[in-house]
Design brief:
With 150 residues, this protein is of the alpha/beta class. The protein contains six helices and four strands.
Length: 150
């Protein structure tokens, strides 16, 4: 079982989009039983809130089912539990590393690393551009699955 946690600032836009898209992608490949997929925030601002309406709308446009989720904060124990903790931007990585009290097992990654880029995933909370965010997340997930040999 490969355990993956997607993380962004509030856990209502980018990380929930990644959670739903990754769930869809592995199901389409018939390998969903190989994965446990979740998402979390580095902040407490949105705790308990559902995914952002822009995320819900974009997933619907793409024909991808929304994974039911309520925002939660990443905890120290998540670092021990998950195999991959994938943040969306540089600030997320910094905060994830702080919450985890370091990254001695090298489990923390930035999403677009898997697409061969050091760029941040566009944050639609500020840009309103869920299309760009979707493209970024999809590219990162395709690269991640390729790296896993799947």
């Amino acid at each position: 079982m490969i355990k993956v946690l997607f993380i962004c600032h509030g856990n209502i836009c980018r990380s929930t989009l990644a959670q739903s898209l990754m769930t869809y992608m592995v199901k389409e490949r018939g390998i969903e039983d190989m994965f446990e997929i979740d998402s979390a925030a580095t902040s407490t601002e949105e705790i308990g809130n559902p995914p952002h309406y822009g995320t819900v709308r974009k997933l619907k446009e793409e024909g991808i089912p929304l994974v039911p989720h309520r925002a939660r904060r990443m905890l120290r124990r998540d670092y021990e539990y998950y195999d991959y903790l994938i943040g969306m931007d540089t600030a997320n990585i910094r905060n994830m590393t702080r919450i985890a009290e370091g990254d001695p097992q090298r489990k923390i990654y930035k999403m677009l690393e898997f697409a061969g880029s050091s760029a941040d995933v566009a944050d639609p909370w500020y840009t309103g551009d869920f299309e760009a965010t979707y493209r970024d997340v999809k590219a990162g997930l395709e690269g991640f699955l390729k790296q896993l040999g799947l």
